[in-house]
Design a protein that fits this description.
Strand content: 15-25%
Number of strands: 8
Order of helices and strands: EEEHHEHEHEHHEHEHH
Helix content: 25-40%
Strand order of the largest sheet: 3-1-2-4-5-6-7-8
Radius of gyration: 18 Å
Structural class: alpha/beta
Largest sheet: 8 strands, mixed
Length: 240
C-alpha cells in the first residue's frame, strides 16, 4: 500500500515541554485558526513546509528512541494544527502504538467528533488541548473561530477517559480577565481526565516571523505577561 504523505514544518529531537519525558516533536504544516499571538505564523500556509512519508518520519524517530523511551517520553505531534492532516497522523500513530511508543497531540480541538477523529483519539495517549479563551466572543476575535467545538472536544475526551493537559495562553488585557479565568476553572473542574493545567505567558518573540512575511503583527501594543500575571491566573485556576 502506498504510504501517506504530509507537509511538515520542522522537527524537535529533545522536546521537554510537550508531554511527559523527552519528546520527539513533529510540527505539522497548516493551521485553520488565525491566532493574533501566534509565534509560528509561518506554519499557517497549508502548502508550506516539506513533504514527508510516514516511513521517512518513522526513520527519523528511530534514531532517537534510545533517548526518549527510557525517559518515559514519546512522540508529540504539534503544529500548526496536526488534525488537519488526520489520515497521516492516524497512520503514523498506528505504527508507533505497535511499537509501544507514547503518543501525544497538541491541538486546538476545533473539530467535530467524526469517526475518523475517533480513530486518531483512540491511538493517542495524551492530548495537549489549547483552550484559546473560554469567552466565546473574545475567542472569535482572537482566533477567528468560535470555541464551541474545542470545548465539546474536551468534554468528549473526558467522557471516554482520555488524558489531557489544558493550556491557556495568558494575554494581558485579552485572556486574563478574572471572570473568564473563573469560568475556565469551572469548566476544567467539570472534566475528569485533566492531568495538568498550564498557564503559558504571552510573549512577542514570534513577531519577527510576521514581519518577515510582510504581515502586520496584530498585538504590537500588547504587553508581555509577567510572572505576577501568571501567578494571579494560577491562583484563580486553583493550580497548586
Amino acid at each position: 500500500m502506498k504510504e501517506l504523505k504530509a507537509r511538515i514544518h520542522s522537527f524537535e529531537s529533545f522536546g521537554t515541554v510537550d508531554g511527559p519525558g523527552i519528546r520527539f516533536v513533529i510540527f505539522m504544516q497548516g493551521c485553520s485558526l488565525k491566532c493574533k499571538y501566534c509565534h509560528n505564523r509561518d506554519t499557517w500556509d497549508l502548502c508550506g513546509g516539506e513533504e514527508y512519508t510516514t516511513g521517512e518520519v518513522l526513520t527519523k524517530i528511530e534514531k532517537y528512541k534510545n533517548y526518549f523511551m527510557p525517559s518515559g517520553g514519546g512522540i508529540t505531534v504539534s503544529g500548526g494544527e496536526p488534525l488537519l492532516q488526520l489520515k497521516f497522523v492516524t497512520e503514523l500513530f498506528t505504527h508507533l502504538k505497535a511499537q509501544g511508543v507514547h503518543t501525544a497531540i497538541d491541538t486546538s480541538g476545533n473539530f467535530a467528533i467524526t469517526e475518523d477523529i475517533k480513530k486518531v483519539i483512540d491511538l493517542t495517549d495524551l492530548f495537549l488541548l489549547d483552550i484559546k479563551c473560554i469567552n466565546d466572543e473574545i475567542c472569535k476575535d482572537l482566533t477567528g473561530i468560535s470555541n464551541k467545538q474545542e470545548l465539546a472536544f474536551a468534554q468528549y475526551l473526558s467522557s471516554i477517559g482520555k488524558d489531557m493537559w489544558i493550556r491557556q495562553v495568558l494575554v494581558p488585557g485579552i485572556t486574563d480577565k478574572k471572570e473568564d479565568l473563573e469560568m475556565l476553572e469551572h469548566f476544567v473542574s467539570s472534566l475528569s481526565t485533566v492531568k495538568k493545567i498550564e498557564v503559558l505567558p504571552y510573549h512577542s518573540m514570534g513577531r519577527f516571523k510576521w514581519k518577515e512575511l510582510g504581515i502586520d503583527y496584530p498585538l504590537d501594543n500588547t504587553p508581555e505577561a509577567t510572572s505576577e500575571d501568571v501567578e494571579r491566573a494560577k491562583k484563580i485556576l486553583k493550580i497548586l
